[in-house]
C-alpha cells in the first residue's frame, strides 16, 4: 500500500526529532541544574503519556493491528520505545537484513545472521563480496549498520566475520560498524534524495549532493548510485545509457556492470555510493570531513 505523500515528506523531519529534543534540553542547562532537570522531567512525562495512549490503541485493536503499525518505520520506532513492538529482536534483525539484501547483492555480497547473543550482540557473516572494489567493504558496513541499528536499537555490538569458505576470512571489528564509518579521516553522512523515487526502470539520472556529482540508475526495482566519474577515461558519465545491467560511458564506451559494484574490464570499476531507504526516503551516504556539520 502506498503511503500518503505528506507522510513521506515528513519522514526526514521526524528522523531528526530526537536530536532536536536533545538540543533543546541542552539549551535548558544554561538556566541551571534545576531548570535542566525540570525540562528532562517534562520530556519524560510527555513520553509516558503518549506511550500510555499508544498502548491503549494497540490493546484495543484487532490482533493484527500491531503488525500493521510496525510496517511504518516511524510508528515502529515508537512501538520499540514503549515495548509494544510485535516482533522480538531476532525477527526484527532478520527482516532488516532481508530489506538490504538486494543492495548487498548489487555489490556481489550477502550476509547471514549467525546468532544474537544475550539479546545484545549480533553476529553476522558476509559472503561473496566483490574483491575488485575497494569501496565494497565500507558500503556493506554502512548498509548493515544502518539496518541493524534502526531495527534493533537495543543491540550494543555487532560482530562480523567473512564466511568460512572465503580464504580471505577475517574479522571486522564491531566498533567499525557501531561507530560512524570512517575512511581516510572522513565520516559517512546521510543525505535524503527523494527524487530517486521518480526514476523508472532502466533510467539514469545525475544529481549533485553536497557538492558531489552522482549518477543514479534503476535496474528493475533496485536503484543504484555511483560517483559520476569514469575510471577509464577520467571524465564524467553524464549522458550514460543503461542496457540491462551495463552502464556505458558515453565518451570512451567502457561498459560497467552496475549490479556487481560497477565492475568493468581489466579491474576498472565505478565507485559505488550507499543508497538506502531511511524512513521510506531514498538517501545516499557520502564521506564528509571529520567535524563537518551533519
UniProtKB/TrEMBL annotation:
<dbReference type="GO" id="GO:0051537">
    <property type="term" value="F:2 iron, 2 sulfur cluster binding"/>
</dbReference>
<dbReference type="GO" id="GO:0004497">
    <property type="term" value="F:monooxygenase activity"/>
</dbReference>
<keyword id="KW-0408">Iron</keyword>
<keyword id="KW-0001">2Fe-2S</keyword>
<keyword id="KW-0479">Metal-binding</keyword>
<dbReference type="GO" id="GO:0016705">
    <property type="term" value="F:oxidoreductase activity, acting on paired donors, with incorporation or reduction of molecular oxygen"/>
</dbReference>
<protein>
    <recommendedName>
        <fullName>Rieske domain-containing protein</fullName>
    </recommendedName>
</protein>
<feature type="domain" description="Rieske">
    <location>
        <begin position="190"/>
        <end position="284"/>
    </location>
</feature>
<dbReference type="InterPro" id="IPR001075">
    <property type="entry name" value="NIF_FeS_clus_asmbl_NifU_C"/>
</dbReference>
<dbReference type="GO" id="GO:0005506">
    <property type="term" value="F:iron ion binding"/>
</dbReference>
<dbReference type="InterPro" id="IPR036922">
    <property type="entry name" value="Rieske_2Fe-2S_sf"/>
</dbReference>
<keyword id="KW-0411">Iron-sulfur</keyword>
<dbReference type="InterPro" id="IPR017941">
    <property type="entry name" value="Rieske_2Fe-2S"/>
</dbReference>
<dbReference type="Pfam" id="PF01106">
    <property type="entry name" value="NifU"/>
</dbReference>
<dbReference type="GO" id="GO:0016226">
    <property type="term" value="P:iron-sulfur cluster assembly"/>
</dbReference>
<dbReference type="InterPro" id="IPR034904">
    <property type="entry name" value="FSCA_dom_sf"/>
</dbReference>
<comment type="function">
    <text>May be involved in the formation or repair of [Fe-S] clusters present in iron-sulfur proteins.</text>
</comment>
Amino acid at each position: 500500500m502506498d503511503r500518503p505523500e505528506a507522510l513521506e515528506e515528513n519522514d526526514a523531519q521526524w528522523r531528526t526529532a530526537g536530536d532536536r529534543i536533545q538540543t533543546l534540553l541542552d539549551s535548558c542547562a544554561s538556566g541551571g541544574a534545576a531548570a535542566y532537570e525540570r525540562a528532562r522531567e517534562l520530556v519524560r512525562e510527555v513520553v509516558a503519556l503518549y506511550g500510555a495512549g499508544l498502548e491503549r490503541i494497540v490493546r484495543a485493536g484487532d490482533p493484527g493491528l500491531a503488525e500493521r503499525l510496525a510496517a511504518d518505520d516511524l510508528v515502529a520506532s515508537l512501538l520499540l520505545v514503549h515495548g509494544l513492538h510485535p516482533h522480538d529482536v531476532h525477527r526484527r534483525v532478520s527482516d532488516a537484513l532481508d530489506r538490504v539484501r538486494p543492495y548487498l547483492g548489487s555489490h556481489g555480497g550477502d550476509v547471514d545472521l549467525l546468532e544474537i547473543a544475550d539479546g545484545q550482540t549480533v553476529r553476522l557473516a558476509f559472503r561473496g563480496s566483490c574483491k575488485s572494489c575497494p569501496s565494497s567493504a565500507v558500503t556493506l558496513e554502512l548498509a548493515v549498520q544502518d539496518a541493524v541499528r534502526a531495527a534493533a536499537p537495543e543491540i550494543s555490538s555487532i560482530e562480523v566475520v567473512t564466511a568460512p569458505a572465503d580464504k580471505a576470512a577475517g574479522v571486522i571489528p564491531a566498533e567499525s560498524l557501531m561507530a560512524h564509518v570512517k575512511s581516510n579521516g572522513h565520516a559517512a553522512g546521510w543525505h535524503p534524495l527523494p527524487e530517486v523515487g521518480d526514476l523508472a526502470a532502466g533510467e539514469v539520472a545525475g544529481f549533485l549532493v553536497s557538492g558531489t556529482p552522482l549518477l543514479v540508475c534503476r535496474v528493475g526495482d533496485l536503484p543504484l548510485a555511483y560517483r559520476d566519474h569514469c575510471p577509464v577515461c577520467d571524465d564524467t558519465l553524464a549522458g550514460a545509457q543503461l542496457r540491462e545491467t551495463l552502464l556505458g560511458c558515453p565518451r570512451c564506451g567502457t561498459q560497467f556492470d552496475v549490479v556487481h559494484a560497477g565492475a568493468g574490464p581489466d579491474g576498472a570499476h565505478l565507485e559505488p555510493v550507499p543508497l538506502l531507504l531511511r524512513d521510506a526516503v531514498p538517501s545516499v551516504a557520502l564521506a564528509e570531513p571529520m567535524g563537518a556539520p551533519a
